[in-house]
Amino acid sequence: MSVLMALGNTYGLLMVAVLLGYGLVDLPRSISRMAKPENELRRARIMAGSADEALFDAVWELQDCEDLVDATIARIERYNAQDEESPGGATASKGEQYYTVCVESLVRRRNATANLGSELQNRRTSSNRRSNNRGDDDFEDVHVHAPPYCADDRPTIQHLAELNAKLQRAQATLMSMEQRWNSLVKRSRFYASLAGGDVPDRSTSQASPSPSLLSGSNEGVGGCMRSMWMRQLRGPVYRLMALSMAILSGTVLWSEATIGLDINLSPFALFLEAFGSSSKNIFFQIAALIPLLYMSACVYSSLFKLSNFGPYCLRGHNQSIGVALVFNAQYLVRLQFPLGYNYLLMLKYDTSSTNCAFVHVMSDMSTVPFFGTSFSVYAPLMIIALCCFTLCNGYPRLLAVLGIEHEDAILMGDKETLEGKVNEGITLLRRHEDRSKDSSRRSEFKDDSSHSSDSQKSDSWWVGVV
């Protein structure tokens, strides 16, 4: 049992080393980019082409699944019609009742996305066009997994369950891609407003006029403070935050590099000694919590960059499905204990006087000599190597070479390629804005016409009463 616990803890420590090595560089860099609206606007426009293509693929994948469902339902209806015409008719056994429930569940899931929004409905197309855009091989791969039954047989319950699961994954992917596109549109509006000197609106992230400085209401005071924050304070504050995080990252790296030494050279440990050695001191607890919180933020923010989880990877605010949140929450809980153990090693904190369960669990690391005993030697070197790899943009370059579709890989390329992506993104976002304006005009026209008809009915009713 102790060996299994040590293997589990070692896996967590290796994951912490990988994620921490990436996050210590990426988190300050991300905060520094947010201080420059022009760069973030350019970044959003470059990513617009990939997001638009991913949304098209998600809609077409859903259409392929819907075609399979429609063909399956039609086959079942033909089979039932032939069965009713046969001598004896159909028998309503328990198996037939359960089969009917499965079919009804599949039809309900199919009808849930029958009527999409105008933005997604315009992206629907015919099967011939989908095959031409994807390529014949890719389009055939979608249909090759159709349930293998003969024309005279009806699909089995297992085939219906597989088709239901396939349709559910396609709907979840479409929801995620739509949220990703909408988030990118709002992000481009936000940074376009900042780059143009306007104050983005709170609800729509669009440009809004500056509030009057003479207004004495609470809304006017809040608007003035928000305007001052967006125009004058936001950039310097974000730069100061990025500088502070960079200093913390350098301090963490120095502390990790000196773990294997006999003397304690960690600045965090020397800083904690100024508050005394008693763990019951509230100032000692706050001072000890700040580095751990920053290391946790670096580790957990790196989970957003992992695309190896497939449909279970995190995709940002309002872009992840529930299963992905639960899956990554498990990793969050599992990584907290190895991260705490690494933090204690970094501080060289004496745990011999404590008798808590955490110390007993992590002490089993010594039962695996290669991993446990030498962890203080190879783990800091791994973290430092990954930091240097991330600092030199090695991760996006590797993804670009492997052809993996990722946010960091999309932003890599020569100047001419990136300029082409920027122009394409401007065209796509402008087209989306035009469609949104046309849709809002049509909805306003419908509302006005319905309101005028209702007022005419009420006037005629009142005249009749008089």
* Total strands: 2
> What is the distance, rounded to the nearest whole angstrom, between the alpha carbons of the first and last residues?
90 Å
What spatial order of strands do you see in the largest sheet?
1-2
Number of helices: 17
Mean pLDDT: 76
The shape is globular
What's the helix-strand series?
A: HHHHHHHEEHHHHHHHHHH
Strand content: under 5%
Structural class assignment: mainly alpha
What does this structure look like?
With 466 residues, this protein is an all-alpha fold. 74% of the residues lie in helices and 1% in strands. The chain has 17 helices and two strands. The chain has helices at 2-34, 37-85, 94-112, 118-121, 127-134, 136-143, 157-195, 218-257, 267-273, 282-302, 322-347, 357-362, 369-373, 375-391, 394-402, 407-410, 415-465, and strands at residues 199-200, 207-208. Strands 1-2 form a two-stranded antiparallel ribbon. Strand 1 (199-200) and strand 2 (207-208) form a beta hairpin. Helix 3 (94-112) packs parallel to helix 7, helix 9 (267-273) packs antiparallel against helix 10 and helix 10 packs across helix 11.
Task: Put the structure in a nutshell.
With 466 residues, this protein is mainly α.
Task: Set out the fold topology.
Elements: H1 2-34, H2 37-85, H3 94-112, H4 118-121, H5 127-134, H6 136-143, H7 157-195, E1 199-200, E2 207-208, H8 218-257, H9 267-273, H10 282-302, H11 322-347, H12 357-362, H13 369-373, H14 375-391, H15 394-402, H16 407-410, H17 415-465
Antiparallel strand pairs: 1-2
Helix pairs in contact: 1-8, 1-10, 1-11, 1-14, 2-7, 2-17, 3-7, 5-6, 9-10, 10-11
